[in-house]
Amino acid sequence: MPELPDVEIFNRLVLHHCRGRAIAQAVVSDPGILQGISSDALEQRLKGEQIRSSARHGKHLFILLKAGALAMHFGMNGSLRFVPRGGAEPPYTRLRLDFDDGDGLAYVNPRRLGGVGICESVEGSVNELGLGPDVLDPGFDLEAFTAILAGGKRDVKAVLMDQQLMAGLGNIYSDEVLFQARLHPEVTARNLRSEAVARLFRAMRKTLNAAIEYGAGSERGVDQLPKDFLLPQRHRGGHCPRCGTGLAAGKRSGRTGYYCPHCQQK
DNA sequence: TTAAGTGTTGCTCT
DNA sequence: AAGAGCAACACTTA
Hints:
Layout: H1 4-17, E1 23-28, H2 39-46, E2 53-57, E3 60-64, E4 69-73, E5 79-83, E6 93-99, E7 104-108, E8 115-119, H3 122-129, H4 142-150, H5 156-161, H6 171-180, H7 194-216, E9 248-252, E10 255-259
Antiparallel strand pairs: 1-6, 2-3, 3-4, 4-8, 5-7, 6-7, 9-10
Helix pairs in contact: 1-7, 4-7, 6-7
The structure holds a DNA duplex.
């Protein structure tokens, strides 16, 4: 689940339900997800802290405290869940923040890919991680996007997914964005014409924002997604929502990408 | 029962 | 040196 739209939903969850709250207690139930800090140190560091705000960069979430931030990554299937007072703790909760009124915030991560840690600043952490600009940052414009693609010797899909070049897109949404822009995933990035690059940029913005809006409604009905989304068909035997052609699958570096061989030509 | 899977890291081979 | 491929991480679902 957690690519940019999912992490943005977590970001809004913290902003809407946790901002301003004091952390009465932090409980680490699985030290295996801690990055660069011990259970005791993290619990002491968070006790008495206050959640001031929240920020997202690519697939990373930063819960801003009075000093520094709690940095989170969700790996393949992690999530953040608000637990109302008296509510049951979700399975695979690895870290829980308890607020003084009994409500809580659970960091859930079944596979333990990803983790949490403390950082001094978002900027410093983003630098350490070597992340490129967030793809939805207003400052990340067509010019910046074009410059990155122009230097890409790899397939456009590989470039879109390279977090060091630009942060936020993973396997699922790179497929979705390429489908919306009607571009073949195996075209070499720097060979794209400027018209195609502009189309891709617009599709990226539009698609990600639509996915966030869909998730933000918290209604999980697939019918809420735009009808031309590839996502619900993105599996073996799936069909193009636009022309009905059977989807093609390409395995590259262990990941499977899906595309419509009719709509997305080289 | 087996295989595939949303991400990242680190290693090897070219 | 850059890029591709793969295994590992732990667990769910088709």
